Amino acid sequence: MKGKKLCAAIMLSILFCFCAAVIFAQDANFAQAARITLGSGNVTINRAGDYVLSGTLRNGQVLIDPGKNGVVRLQLNGAYIENPNGPAIYMKSGAELIINLAAGTENTLIDGKNYRAVSAAGEDDPKAALYVKNSLTIGGSGKLSVTGNYRNGIHAKDALVISRESGNISVNAVEEAIQGGDSVTILGGVFDLRAGNDGLKSNNSDAGKGNVTINGGMFTITAGRDAVQADNGLTINGGIFTIKTGGGAAAGAAISGRNSFGNGDWGARGWNRSAQFPAPAAAASGDSESYKAFKAGKELVVSAGTFTIDAQDDAFHSNGNLTVRRGTFSINTGDDAFHADNALRVEGGTINILACYEGLEGKTIDIAGGGITIVSSDDAINAADGRATSGVNNSIYARISGGTIKITATGDGVDANGNLYLAGGELYVSGPSMGMQGAIDLDGSFVVSGGKLITAGSSLSPSSQSTQPVILISYTAARNSGSVISLRDSSGRALLEYTARTQFSASAFSSPDIKTGQTYGLYIDGKKITDVTVRGTVTAMADNGGTYAVGRGGPGGGPGGGRGRR
């Protein structure tokens, strides 16, 4: 039922965008519009229709109040509006405000640090330089610069749409840069957003609302808290994103009390907003603080896009499910790169996680495709549900059926509080060789039925349920980081080869090319160490021909190691 409601909301957003695009096509030239030249004093628009604003207003406001069902189409044609006492543009009533940024023009909206009361008792007062109490659509190829000195930059209480032909929009705001209460839909444009709180936000938790959809555009977002946040669904279908949240990954790495599932203590923050923006009132009211790049309350889907992220907290976070279909990702984060409280699924994309606490974390993790490189200070892949429990929970698992995954982990390479399944793809792991961490660590079973596997770390124990042969080698002396590990057939052909990124005391090998009854050579840096004859599903031995030193990297995975609040 929840999925149907979310789909319905997305369809309504698409329909709204289509209608807005048609309106722009019909009224693009504003030839018959009423023309207003700004000067001294306030400007009031109390009738629906088309208007063109130009000129400078340094101590006043454009008030739009056409009545309950009025639609106003407003072209900004070189307009500068600054109001020290409230919003620069304030739509108090009406069904919708449509703003067109005239081609070749620069337009500026600035509000004051202190507002005078403007609404009747019981009504919500405005809180943005451009504030609309209904729906807002922005299009046109011109430029718009917005400064939100009071709280937000651009804020619509209902739906906010920025059309595909939108030009260059820059926002600098104390709190949110761009906010749509019911939804935010962006089809295109160039955005430079600086926010003391969130960059893009939709915060209505009602069913079918609180959704953010981004279909394209170029985004540079520097956010004191989350860069993009949706109370319900967040969908990214394209775009180029350069994002920094909080103090960046370095600030997140210094924070104690790690738990991405929302039950950890953040401790000292170590980040200060720009001196231009003091701490907003919301921060003092007890609101949960969060420093994520992309955050969804229920569902986060990434279908395409290019992402360069430096996040103090998670790069991608969902309190429900998270799906990655395609995209190119370069991620530095002080916590998780991808986190889902429930299901995390990766279907494709080029994912380069340069630094993180944990790389992929979810109650269930399914990797079906993509090229994934993870460097983690704790577990690179962690299947957990945020609770410390005894025994094996079979509802928690990590399953790899496709893709190429290369892991360098200070903690466990793959950590599962339940089971781990390797059914396809390629998994290369460099993990710790001693202590309580290992290349692969789990509470349940490690079942190998396909794919390629090489580990360089500590010893592990595949399940007897495996159907593809696994070779386990323990080394009588620790091997150095940078060593090239190779498993070759009788003709000298390398079936598996990998350069270890950490010191290691054991290795595991599996491939569809490894056959029972055949003998293979183990090489380190081109030198043959030993021959291995595959005797069954699991063949284990030491590199000197002795008994394999059975062990695991630890007593099973922990309850999840992230550090971010929800």
Describe the structure concisely:
With 566 residues, the protein is mainly beta.
Textual characterization of the structure:
With about 575 residues, the protein is mainly β. The chain has a domain at about 245-270 and about 290-475 and about 500-565. It has three helices and 47 strands. The strands form three sheets. It has a 20-stranded parallel β-barrel. The chain has a 15-stranded parallel beta sheet with strand order 2-4-6-9-12-15-18-21-24-27-30-33-35-37-39, with no helix packed on it. The chain has a four-stranded antiparallel beta sheet with strand order 43-42-45-46, with no helix packed on it. Strand 42 and strand 43 (about 495-500) form a beta hairpin. About 55% of the residues are buried.
